[in-house]
Amino acid sequence: MAAIDQYIERIADESLRGEIQMELARLMKKKSFGLVFEHHMPDNLLTPEVPIRRGTNVVIRNGKVSDVYEVQSLTDTEATCVQLSTMNEVVLPLADLVAIAQRGDVIYPYLKPMDSVKNAPDSELWHTLIEADNYHALQLLVYLYAGQVDCIYIDPPYNKPDSHDWKYNCDYVDGTDSYRHSKWLSMMEARLKIAKKLLNPKDSVLIVTIDELEYHHLGCLLEQLFPEARIQMISTMINPANVARVGGFGRSGEFIFFVLLGDCTPHQLELGREWVSSKGRTHTGYVRWDLLKRSGLGASRSDSPGGFYPVYIDRNNIIKLVGEPLPPGISKAEEIEGLYPLLPIRKDGSEGRWQWTSDTFRERQKQGRVKIGGNYKKGYTIYILKDGEYNKILSGQFREIGRGPNNEIITEGSDNHSGLFKAVPGDIWRISSHDSTQYGSRLLNSIIGSRFSFPKSLYAVHDALRFFIANKPNALILDFFAGSGTTLHAVNLLNKEDGGHRRCIMVTNNEIGEPKEKELIPQGIKPGDEEWEKWGIARYVNWPRTQCSILGIDINGKPIEGEYFTSLTETKELDRKFTQINFFPAGANQKHKKSLVSLINKQKEVKLPTMTADVLFLVSEDDSYNASILFDVTKIDDYLEALEGNDHITNFYIVTDKDATYRQVKEEISQLMGKIEETVPVSMSMKDGFKANATFFKLGFLDKRSVARGRQLQELLPILWMKAGAKGECPTNVEGEFVIWPQNHIAILKKESCFRQFRNELDKHPEIEVVYIITDSQNAYLTMIDELREFRTYQLYRDYLENFRINYAAK
């Protein structure tokens, strides 16, 4: 309706204007369903760098951007214009005018190099920051990467009524604007329509963060624009401190929409406990893992020869191969380099047998019923889920929350010594590292100072991306509401973790914010002036952060203090804990023993099994019990046999008043059980920076006539470089009849009469992937590319000009 209101205001006949307004008000009373909002006049963009010519649309500097004039004629100091809302002709001072670009106008963009940072000279990978209105930048990106983007992550303005944090038609939108919701939806709809063209329809994801002010509107808009996609919204806690609100609940979270296209799904990742369960051990039962090695009667090799086969395990505790049963008389498995062949040999050296045949083992490992304990140094133990326990999982008695490194099922509440679970999490995230204060504001302040409010937690963005691009080491990621630059920072961290070459494109405007505007305007400083532009978010926040994080220094040139959390882990060996109990009376009865067990269980993080009889020691195969006690040291042999395979036991209590005996028993247990392997996160020093490169461009606009006459090749180089994959450092000049840049995988033929020489030179450079040919003749172009079939080829300037003309016509 806002657009209609503006059109009605142009009606000169006051009576007719009033009647139309009354009729419109009557129509508005009709009930509408679904996502219905007032579409607004296209938002305009000031382009002070564009020269004013006859036919240029302009506005009065510091006036209303919706009040547009078309230039009819020019002198050195004045412009004769027609005011489009009234069609009145006026003469205006040329110095008071600024050119505008309107959404929907035909544009011919170029990228002006502003700066670059290079910390990986041997790498072809270059990230990109584009300073631009994101609508026009998206138009350019469709020309470059239509259908090629793997992931779009955006954090658009939340449209808070008490915060002037975004503009429509160059005016801030706040709570006093009755059209603020429809303006926000108009703004988002226009950009999401173009963004959809960028996403790979076969496998890609759009990730959008939002809070409660617009999440329901956004959800409807996404369903309308992406009817073929699967859309899921998750809730995430970003502020555990909880921001109090008068008359309402405090705010501690926000929402993330995931729009999944094609075959895209979140991948199982190794996650910490807080990702997969907030329940903890509130139930008493646990899945029981039994030993694969048979015990008791019928446990010898001779009882079942088919159960004597090797299981080959590597140093990372991964089962690589399940062998066949060894022939009678053969007791040693074939050696395979780098693998340990585990056979069912008993402690006394005699030959035992596995409970499953080799075929059954392979089948049930696929089901998730096999896991490995121990390590290369102290030996391995294989655990299995028998049918009864497995059926408890299938029936839902125990909930599967992930898979381990050998595909073993991990259930909620089970004891996982690594602390990691291979899983896809639920839709409510309460992750400590997603705290936007600690890992957003404070982290950013440590790099560039207090230049930006409310950045996202680096790890919140990192994790959202990781579910979809961890398996895509060469993914292309776009953020067209890039703000402070968290997305590129997160992509660099992902690449550092796994050696990936993911490339990130960021787009942000260079708004300076209302407080700074009020400070500069009275001084006569205006948009386009260097003193104005240097305070903008692209130049004052995003680019400094990008440079500093890559180089590992803060804005003052000092090393950044602190460590990055990563998704990587490392294993550390720790000693098991032993306690001597020398005060216990000899010949103690069951009552005394139960009292001692009860006393020990009062300690934190220690749990002995319950005594149900007068026993000589307590050992449980249930991995919820991490402690064991030996009441009678003379039964050490039986005790050691009972301990075998129970790697989950980390705390031992030995009852003896003799120190020498205690030390001897401790040594025997230590030799059997070995050290504890604890998996801990790997951190990375921030001062080390990232092996990465990035370049900073500002989007501008070219004159179509100059492009068509071939005068703008120099200005188009960054676009041609990006279209070819942004490999190597962006070239800066073009000299000669043709150029070949192996480091960029690009070649350009400027003069078609030199084609034969050009083609011969191409044969010397197998690195070339993309060829640009400058010619006005379509027939000549088709003839030349017939000899260039191994390359991606484009005709200049036709390809460039037609793209933007056709895109305009399709609107």
UniProtKB/TrEMBL annotation:
A molecular function GO annotation: N-methyltransferase activity
Classification via InterPro entries: DNA_methylase_N4/N6 (IPR002941), DNA_methylase_N6_adenine_CS (IPR002052), N4/N6-MTase_EcoPI_Mod-like (IPR002295), SAM-dependent_MTases_sf (IPR029063)
Keyword Transferase among record annotations: yes
SUPFAM superfamilies: S-adenosyl-L-methionine-dependent methyltransferases
GO biological process, one term: methylation
Reaction(s) catalysed by this chain's protein: a 2'-deoxyadenosine in DNA + S-adenosyl-L-methionine = an N(6)-methyl-2'-deoxyadenosine in DNA + S-adenosyl-L-homocysteine + H(+)
A UniProt-annotated Pfam family: N6_N4_Mtase
Residue ranges annotated for the DNA methylase N-4/N-6 domain, each copy included: 423-504
Enzyme type, top EC level: transferase
Record's keyword terms, sorted: Methyltransferase, S-adenosyl-L-methionine, Transferase
E.C. number(s) listed in UniProt: 2.1.1.72
Family label: Belongs to the N(4)/N(6)-methyltransferase family.
Name of the featured protein: site-specific DNA-methyltransferase (adenine-specific)
Lineage of the species this protein comes from: Bacteria, Pseudomonadati, Bacteroidota, Bacteroidia, Bacteroidales
